[in-house]
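Propose amino acids for all 327 sites.
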């Protein structure tokens, strides 16, 4: 039975019909807003390549978080930018480091808001790589197993400060296991790990590196982040992270990797996140600011596509605007 009996346009003829048969829904609870926290007071420093986003001191971060809670946004993910960077990323696991202080302040002033922390070293190392680089190694080959110890300490310090979820984004092998063991040993058996399981070496992180002041001083991240050409390997990364104890997994970036999100959704029975990264945000903003795209429609279409591909939740710099659009 085909045309003229079948007419798919019948169910598209009014918004009330379209709404009834819509397969994918967006809700504020599915959005996580990334925030950049810096030392100081009263600071709100706009990130030029990410219009509307800013590095904020803890007092302003708390205000931003209050707004997120009021809007019903799913949560925030924190990235700390320390006053001083060094070769051993000591600011990352300092119990009084910038991220730890922000977490404590948010927990105290905005109870009930879900706090995730990004667990990585690139914002804290003087060279901008995600871990320990042996002296004299100019190829930027991060030493995997030494870095695991830093990551574990960092995760424990975030959870001690009050983080609800830790999200390792470094792409070292074995980091989920190292973090799980350290959290359990410290008595935090109930704190979930959201693993950036399939994280690609992507050009779309460009603006983030301005935001987090974390551009590598030499080399690039291709010896630890994934090759954009590989899909099967992403499934291995995810399977291994789950074996090591990840509670949730993430694919990053999102829009250029919708096939990976779909494969992960079909293959693994765990909550799945996707990160609509800085470059995805900035290219939409840039086109909209030029009058080339309709910002609000593009935001909703991009987020709907990521959800339709299979993501349960989305880390997105559009979290607040998208919430306003659907509420
Ligand atoms: C830290 C980290 C990065 C992003 C999230 N965590 C940067 C990178 O790996 O270079 C990128 C997020 C974005 O682009 O919005 N390793």
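Proposal:
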């Amino acid at each position: 039975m085909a045309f003229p009996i079948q007419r798919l346009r019948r169910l598209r003829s009014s918004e009330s019909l379209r709404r009834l048969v819509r397969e994918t829904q967006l809700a504020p609870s599915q959005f996580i807003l990334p925030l950049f926290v810096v030392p100081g007071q009263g600071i709100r420093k706009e990130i030029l390549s990410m219009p509307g986003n800013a590095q904020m001191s803890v007092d302003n971060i708390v205000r931003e978080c209050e707004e997120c809670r009021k809007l019903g946004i799913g949560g925030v993910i924190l990235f700390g930018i320390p006053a001083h960077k060094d070769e051993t990323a000591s600011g990352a696991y300092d119990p009084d480091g910038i991220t730890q202080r922000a977490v404590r302040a948010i927990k105290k002033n905005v109870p009930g808001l879900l706090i995730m922390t990004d667990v990585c070293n690139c914002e804290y190392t003087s060279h901008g790589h995600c871990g320990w680089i042996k002296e004299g190694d100019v190829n930027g080959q991060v030493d995997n197993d030494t870095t695991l110890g830093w990551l574990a300490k960092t995760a424990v310090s975030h959870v001690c400060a009050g983080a609800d979820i830790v999200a390792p984004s470094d792409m070292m092998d074995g980091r989920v296991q190292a973090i799980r063991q350290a959290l359990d040993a410290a008595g935090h058996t109930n704190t979930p790990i959201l693993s950036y399981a399939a994280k690609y070496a992507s050009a779309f992180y460009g603006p983030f590196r301005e935001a987090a002041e974390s551009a590598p001083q030499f080399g690039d991240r291709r010896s630890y982040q994934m090759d954009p050409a590989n899909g099967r390997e992403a499934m291995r990364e995810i399977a291994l992270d789950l074996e090591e104890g990840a509670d949730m997994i993430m694919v990053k970036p999102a829009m250029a990797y919708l096939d990976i999100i779909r494969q992960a959704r079909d293959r693994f029975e765990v909550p799945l996140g996707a990160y609509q990264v800085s470059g995805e945000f900035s290219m939409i903003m840039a086109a909209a600011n030029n009058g080339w795209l309709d910002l609000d429609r593009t935001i909703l279409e991009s987020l709907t596509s990521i959800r339709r591909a299979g993501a349960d939740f989305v880390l997105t710099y559009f979290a607040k605007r998208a919430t306003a659009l659907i509420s």
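The longest strand covers residues 31-38. Residues 144-161 form the longest helix (18 residues).
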